[in-house]
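Work through this protein:
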Amino acid sequence: MTSAQMANLPVFPLPGLVFLPGSQLPLHIFEHRYRAMVRWCIEHNCPLAVGRIEPGHEAAQPGDPPVVEVMGVGRLERHLELPDGRFNLVLAGVGRVRLVEELELHPEGFRRFRGVELDALPATSQGYTSLATLRALAAALGTLLPAPARAIQDSLDRGDSPDIVAFRLGAMLLGEPEVRQVFLEQDSTDARLAQVVEHVAELLGRFSGPGQAEG
């Protein structure tokens, strides 16, 4: 993402949603100002930030409620404009941004911010140990939950950088918005991978414990 894009970044606020890099987000856009926002992003080949509305302010929609400071940024991977002007689209998560300043509303009514792109601290030997642990956990999980185990293994086998692997697995495994937001804001790839390992280990324990075996 360029500095010019970060200086004028459209933001799509949503309640309870935390958009993680490495994931895909399908969206149906129907409100007029957000239709204009999508057209603007298409015209200017601009990324789009999607962030959670601050908890407790969800009822402020369709106004301009406060949003979290750190959110995911995506590029329009696919889009389809329907005959009535609505859009179906898929965003591919490409990074994180910290919002610094809200700008004036675009003339079409959508919100824009000045932001700073956030980089992750690279994985150390601790992070690579976590990746090896995840492979072992996925193998152990295979007979209990074949689909999640296969998805974890496939993500590990794609050859992506450890930070993208961590984000992709976090998007797959972490459900609670509060947990996902903390995960998104964490700068350490090692810490994110450790959190994924902990979650998969808990999942394995839950489905392989004596209580589960007894039905």
Notes: The first helix runs from residue 3 to 7.
